[in-house]
Amino acid sequence: MEKSKEPIIRGLKSLRLLTEPGNYMYCACGRTKNNPFCDGSHRAETDIKPIPVNIKFKYEVKWCDCRKSKNLPFCDHSHRLLPGYQPKK
Ligand code: FES
Fold first, then answer.
1. Is residue 8 part of a domain?
2. For the whole prediction, is pTM greater than 0.85?
3. What pLDDT score does 1 carry?
4. Could you tell me if 37 and 17 are in contact, meaning their C-beta atoms sit under 8 angstroms apart?
5. Which structural domain range is residue 25 located in?
6. Cα separations (Å) of 47 from 23, 29, 35, 69, 87?
7. 70 C-alpha to center of ligand 1: Å?
8. Nearest CA to ligand 1 atom 4
9. 33 C-alpha to ligand 1 centroid (Å)
10. In the chain, how long is the greatest CA-to-CA distance?
């Protein structure tokens, strides 16, 4: 069976998470059960690889949850261009 080349869109807003300093593997495929971090699920279904990232200090990271950011693993608001996006009122 051919593996998907498309990431799964998990959410249409950033995933804000208070994150400790350290090295992380961001899930770029959207299939993880430990969002936004890779849990190895990509191996079975895609050729997409996780993205290593080093967080230098503790802060509320805005992780990309739509996987369309041009600045992965961080949100660049690309989700606002996706079908179904509804701005806050
Ligand atoms: S589970 Fe998505 S990149 Fe590893």
1. no
2. yes
3. 66
4. no
5. 15-79
6. 22, 9, 18, 18, 32
7. 18
8. 38
9. 9
10. 44
